[in-house]
Amino acid sequence: MSAANDLVKSRRPGWSLEQPFYVDPFYFQLDLDRVFRTGWLFAGHACQIKESGDYFCYDIADDSLIIIRGYDQKVRALFNVCRHRGSIICKIPKGHVKRLVCPYHQWTYDTDGSLLRNTWMPEDFVNDNFSLKQAHVKSIAGLIFVSLADVAPAFAPEDDLKRLLGPHGLESAKIAHSETYDIAANWKLVLENQRECYHCPAKHKGYAKIQFDTDIDDIDEQNQIQTRWNESREKWASMGLDVSLADDRYAMRESWWRVNRTPFRAGFVSETVNGQLVAPLMGTFTDPDAGNARANTYPNFWLHGSSDHMHTMRVTPIDEKITRIQADWLVNETAKEGTDYSVEQLIAFSKRVNEEDHEIAEDQAKGVMSS
């Protein structure tokens, strides 16, 4: 451990981490223990579990969680481990249950994790002492976060996420499409690429066509950018949107999170191939020109939301060389596929950006692993 501490101390500001942090299993385990097990992680969407008994599983490191809505309507994160002999309870990744039944010896749990039925236990056995263990959970503006820490830290972004995402109505949305990508790169390379847009002009030409990120430091573009920002803030205020979250520098609020609403270039209203709507308006929007809502909660989540759809990304480290991305696209729950939206048009823009980023991360990983 002293060698690890020395390596951290030797880091030069403005430089990348040393190679072991991206390729060594020892440092990967440190990442899990000191980063992923200590803070808050995005698990999924509240609209995935709208009814009592709806659940989905979220696996991180060696832990499996059952994210479930109970009969009391509370969302819980139950460890997917029977209190009897340690067997996995839910082997199907999502679904609906009346009770949670362990397939090994049929121990039966309620949706709140309490043990309802045991088998072959002595008469003095107390069911109440053997409820399923629980992780900390927060359901905020339609997003579900969990913490594996013994004592969860305060969830600082809560108020800002509510103010940013409330108008998008994620609680009354549905997942229109999901894709999972396994990227041959350490999770930190994936996140480091996501945190900057210096690469955007060369690698994301479609993105640069409708977004200002690529020109934020271009002196020749500042008048145009500020004019668009001022027009957008005025319009958003008239729409009842919180313009205090419209930050033209997209600065971090704290070390691990940020939120922002940013305008598209003039003439564009959605993060799509042609910059136009591809689905019905979401939430409380009546005007499509609501800009692009963005949020990051590190180490595993970011989103981009237009007035007609939301795109979210969940990052899960598999090992020191593989990172799994869960990409979801959400629309208004009343929208009908084939009539109100086409999945191909809905995902085309973000899918292309995702694939461009995946190529970047994998190319960098090959170089980082080089001797």
Overall tally of structural domains: 3
Percent of residues in helices: 25-40%
Which structural class fits the helix and strand makeup? alpha+beta
**CATH architecture descriptor name of the largest domain:** Alpha-Beta Complex
General shape:
globular
Radius of gyration: 22 Å
Order of helices and strands: HHHEEEEEEEEEEHEHHHHEEEEEH
Main beta-sheet annotation: 7 strands, antiparallel
**Strand segment tally:** 16
Q: Beta fraction of the residues?
A: 25-35%
Query: What's the tally of helices?
Result: 9
Under CATH, the homologous superfamily of the largest domain reads Naphthalene 1,2-dioxygenase Alpha Subunit, Chain A, domain 1
CATH topology of the largest domain: Naphthalene 1,2-dioxygenase Alpha Subunit, Chain A, domain 1
Top-tier CATH class of the largest domain:
Alpha Beta
Calculate the terminal CA-CA distance, rounded to whole Å. 23 Å
Overall description:
Residues 41-146 form the Rieske domain. It holds the Pfam family Ring_hydroxyl_A. Its cofactor is Fe cation. Keywords: 2Fe-2S, Iron, Iron-sulfur, Metal-binding, Oxidoreductase. This is Rieske domain-containing protein. The protein has 371 residues and is of the alpha+beta class. It folds into three domains: 2-36, no CATH class; 42-147, Rieske Iron-sulfur Protein (3-layer Sandwich); 158-369, Naphthalene 1,2-dioxygenase Alpha Subunit, Chain A, domain 1 (Alpha-Beta Complex). The chain is built from nine helices and 16 strands. The strands form three sheets. The protein has a seven-stranded antiparallel sheet with strand order 1-10-9-4-3-2-5. The chain has a six-stranded antiparallel sheet with strand order 11-16-15-14-13-12, with helices on both faces. Strands 6-7-8 form a three-stranded antiparallel sheet, with no helix packed on it. The longest helix has 27 residues, at 343-369. It is globular. The two termini are 23 Å apart. The model has no long low-confidence stretch (mean pLDDT 95).
